[in-house]
Structure prediction request, 235 residues.
Amino acid sequence: MIYLTGDTHSYVERLSFKNFPEGKDLTPNDIVIILGDFGLIWENTMSSSEKYWLNWLSEKPWLTLFVDGNHENFDRIDKLEEVEMFSGKIGRVNNTVFHLKRGEVYNIDGYKFFVFGGGDSIDKVWRVPGISWWDRELPNYAEYKNGLFNLDKVSFTVDYILTHDCPASIYEYLKKEYYIEKTPNYDLPKYLEKIKDSVQFKHWYFGHFHYNDAIDDSFSCLFDCVIKLGQRPKG
Prediction:
C-alpha cells in the first residue's frame, strides 16, 4: 500500500501510530510519501534531533519517500548517495528513507509516478542563504529537461503525478480560495501547467500550501492529513 501526506517541516510525529493508526499494519513493502518540505535534513551537519527522528522513522515498518520542497537543505540533499530504485534515480538517506528526484518517472507498486519537487519561498527575504534558504529550491534547466525526457519515454502517460508546487491554473484557484500570496517566481507553476496539458494521468497530488483540499476530480492539495493513494483529502 502507498500513503501520502503533505509538508512535515521535520515534524514527522504525524506518522506516529497514535496519529496514523493504519501504520501499525504496514510492512516493509508499503510506502509513505511526503510531498515536499520534509525538512528533517536541515542543519549543515546532522543534529541530534535529526539523528533521533531519522532513527524513529527507520523503526517504522514502512519505507519513507519524500519529494523535495522549497524548505530543504539542498547542499546536503544534492550530496545524497544516488541509487537506482523503482526504475529511476533516487537519493538514499538511509536504508528506509529516500529522496524522490525531480523529473524522474518511478514504477512503484505497479503504478507509474512522475515526480517533480521544488517551489518558491515567499519568505526568503527573512531567511539566510546557506543556513535557512537555498536557491536550489527552484529547478534548473537540466531538471526541467530531464522531466520531459523521462515523460517522453513513457509516451507522456503515467498513473499519478507527485509534486510540491502545482500548475499555474491550480495556483490561481488557490490564490482566490485561500488568499494565498503570489509567488515571486512563476517559472515552476508554468512548467507544471505544461505537464498538466500534455500528460495523461489519473490524479495529481501536491503539498506546499498547507491546506487539505480536493480541488477537482484530478487534483488534491495535502497538508497534515495522511491518505491512501487513490483517496481524496476531506478538507
